[in-house]
Amino acid sequence: MLNTSYVGRSLPTTEPVAVTAESVTRFAEALGLADTGLVPPTYLISLTLPAADRLIDDPDFGLDWSRVLHREQRFAYHRELRAGAEVTCAVTVESIKTVAGSDLLSLRTEVRDAEGLAAEVWTTLFVAGDAQ
Amino acid sequence: MQPELEAGAVVFSTSYPVARADLQRYADASGDHNPIHLDEAAAKAAGLPDVIAHGMYTMGLVSRAILEWLAAAGVDARMTEFSARFAKPVVVPAGGTAVEIEGKVRRVEGDTVEIAVTATSAGERVLAPARATLVVR
């Protein structure tokens, strides 16, 4: 079971991370996308999930990664991001819902570049309870 | 605005093969090395029938279908929203599998087009339809 007192809590904003041309090309190629220099629609997950490491690794939070399945994903793009951008990520624990002994954990991450909020990324994880 | 962009119109229908080597490449590109996507024994130990694709790999294929459709149709559009719910896993046996993807126009309002996308693998709907909002330039 997750520690529900974390709901509403935000992790410290990450240091700026470079969206390198190489990482964009590799991500596009792995999905068979044409490499246009634009950041692929789902690329940001490769930044937002590591941004939550501090939460995932926090023993007081109680998240067992081996019991996690990805349930839902949503992106809101406020601006187009191109390779070469530098962004920070700020993760907030938006909600924890317990259903039949398992938890649904929703995280919201604000992705900002030099001009401000570039994208918001919502990730909902299903965390199987002991009975599963 | 393209004439075929009317609510209810099926605008693309495609199929992509998925092999375990694709999941390895996606794991390396995304940094998600969860062994349930790479190793049969780890997947089975987690109670899964076999190796499963990353949900984000499937969502990535949906983005590919949308972008390939836009390019083929000559529509210049910017994606503003993209969402999916992973209803069932895409099971990837040693011999590989395929994901069939179909996109339908859900709503058109001015320059904004909302697309609903279904994805099917081995006869199962793997997404509770994905949605993408596009703003045509």
Helix content of chain B: 25-40%
Give the name of the CATH architecture of chain B. Roll
Q: List the domain count of chain A as a whole number.
A: 1
User: Number of DSSP helices of chain A?
Assistant: 3
Give the overall shape of chain A. globular
Q: How widely separated are the two ends of chain A?
A: 12 Å
Strand order within the widest sheet of chain A? 1-3-4-5-2
Range of helix content of chain A? 10-25%
Give the C-level CATH assignment of chain A.
Answer: Alpha Beta
Structural class of chain A: alpha+beta
Assembly type: heterodimer
- The stretches of 5 or more residues of chain B where confidence is low (pLDDT under 50) are none
As a whole number of angstroms, the C-alpha radius of gyration of chain A is 16 Å
Mind telling me the CATH superfamily name of chain B?
Hotdog Thioesterase
